[in-house]
Amino acid sequence: MRGLILVLTRRCERRCGFCPQEFIDSDMDAAVVDGAIAQLLPKLPRPRRLKLFGGEPLLRPDLVARAIDAARRVDRDAVVELSTRERGLGALTGKVRGAAGVEIFAGSPRFEARLFPRAVLNVLLAPGEGAVETAARVLRARAAGFSRWNLLPAYLTRWRRDERDALRRRFSGVRLVLEKLARRGDFVEVVNLKRTSSVPLFNDGWVVDADGAVYSSNLALTVAARAHKRRLYLGRVGGGLETASPDGAREVLRRSFPEDLLADTFAVDGILGGFCRELREAGLGEAPADRQARPC
Ligand code: SF4
């Protein structure tokens, strides 16, 4: 398994138009948080990664803090990712702010990145924007203190051919920004270079839903996959778990979304993949230990 993902709550008040998730008024019990981490985190290869997910996990800062404590008890070097669109820091406890190894994946550039040097900005690339605007956006993100970016083309969305061509130019513009920054000795990390998944957008791993059910992909949390998520079901926290089928997520994706929407999704994912290959060849987008990205 590649990681452990805890769905601390199925609630979110934002309702972003592009979000495929199914929202339910359901939060994880503290006992499930503890049980899932104790049972599953030790089984992951190092470095162990725990992702705190939702909904909006910061609706339950008590569970966020609890999960960090539980992960530290199992492995003090485990990396804890917190995926949030929360703008203010009010809901973040001091524990989250001070904890080593906690990586915030922020959905908004207004997030106070300077307080979290390991914060990652999710840079959403929707159709319709030009290369200059995208380059300006990532430059503003750098100026706001983000030295780690996760580039996310809008998936499960229609992309016309001209919009896909424009996406290639937008990635070229991002590459020019990375080159410019690198010439100044400022190495921004593109976290996409280190991540793989069997399907675009969704994560493989042990995904523990708020009710304690364990799935092999967070695709199981979407409205569209509701009728097919049984194919991703592995068992429950505290019990034995089945082995995930290697093709399970791809099969559920195929059954859950229209063919033309998936064709566009795989096309833009391929464009992202090409961009990542070019970065690797050019030695860009990674922050080696001796050239760590520095706070702005
Ligand atoms: S879970 Fe995230 S993407 Fe979905 S509606 Fe909430 S903030 Fe938006």
Give structural notes.
The chain is an alpha/beta fold and 296 residues long. The protein has one domain (4-291): TIM Barrel (Alpha-Beta Barrel). Helix content is 33%, strand content 16%. It has helices spanning 30-40, 61-74, 94-98, 131-143, 161-183, 248-256, 259-282; strands at residues 4-7, 49-53, 79-84, 102-106, 120-125, 148-153, 189-190, 204-208, 213-217, 233-236. Strand 8 (204-208) and strand 9 (213-217) form a beta hairpin. Helix 1 packs parallel to helix 2 (61-74), helix 4 runs parallel beside helix 5 (161-183) and helix 5 (161-183) packs parallel to helix 7. It is globular, with a radius of gyration of 19 Å. Mean pLDDT is 90; it is low at 290-296. It binds iron/sulfur cluster (SF4). The site of iron/sulfur cluster has 11 residues, from loops.
Feature tags:
296 residues; alpha/beta; TIM Barrel; 33% helix; binds iron/sulfur cluster
Short description:
The protein has 296 residues and is of the alpha/beta class. It has helices at residues 30-40, 61-74, 94-98, 131-143, 161-183, 248-256, 259-282, and strands spanning 4-7, 49-53, 79-84, 102-106, 120-125, 148-153, 189-190, 204-208, 213-217, 233-236. The chain is 33% helix and 16% strand.
Q: What layout of secondary structure does this protein have?
A:
Elements: E1 4-7, H1 30-40, E2 49-53, H2 61-74, E3 79-84, H3 94-98, E4 102-106, E5 120-125, H4 131-143, E6 148-153, H5 161-183, E7 189-190, E8 204-208, E9 213-217, E10 233-236, H6 248-256, H7 259-282
Parallel strand pairs: 1-2, 1-8, 2-3, 3-4, 4-5, 5-6, 6-7
Antiparallel strand pairs: 8-9, 9-10
Bound molecules: iron/sulfur cluster.
